[in-house]
Write a structure and sequence with these properties.
This protein is mostly helical. The chain has one domain. The chain has seven helices and two strands; from the N terminus they run H-H-H-H-E-H-E-H-H. A two-stranded antiparallel sheet has the order 1-2. Helix 1 runs antiparallel to helix 2, helix 2 packs parallel to helix 6 and helix 4 crosses helix 6. The radius of gyration is 17 Å and the shape is globular. 22% of the residues are buried.
């Protein structure tokens, strides 16, 4: 029951953010990435709950409410990997970053980030959901970065 309510809330927030983003030129890409990562994590929880229904009820309901936030934060971290060049390739969205001097975080998050094409927008949607669904993608990349040695 709690999972269904949480899923409904996250889906409603996603729809509201997409409606807002569709009607405003200054829509924030990081906000879209966050809500899509949250959606991915709720999808993962639904899949896990379906697998557990026959075995046992959800044992840690308080952790359930953290899942969308963790999924959203990991999707944002993944976006930062892509923007910084720590991760890239033709499968991933190509972010365009403004070359102007830093004015404020709000300005940078609203107008300093864009995507190279419409295809990159759809890649961003897909990858944000995938990263929210499977946090292992980001965690394994963090491990690779932490274990890499600087080249002399």
């Amino acid at each position: 029951m709690r999972l269904n309510v949480l899923t409904g809330i996250v889906v409603a927030v996603c729809l509201l953010v997409f409606i807002w983003a569709n009607n405003h030129d200054t829509a924030s890409i990081p906000l879209l990435v966050f809500v899509l990562g949250a959606l991915g994590s709720v999808i993962r929880e639904q899949v896990a709950a379906l697998a557990l229904i026959k075995e046992q009820p959800y044992s840690k309901p308080e952790l359930l409410y953290a899942a969308p936030f963790i999924g959203g934060l990991l999707a944002l971290l993944f976006m930062l990997f892509l923007m910084s060049g720590l991760l890239g390739g033709s499968l991933f969205p190509n972010f365009l970053i403004s070359d102007t001097a830093f004015e404020s975080a709000r300005h940078s998050l609203r107008s300093g980030i864009s995507l190279a094409s419409n295809l990159d927008f759809y890649k961003m949607i897909a990858w944000s959901i995938v990263v929210g669904y499977s946090e292992k993608i980001v965690v394994s990349r963090l491990d690779q970065i932490a274990n890499s040695r600087p080249q002399a």
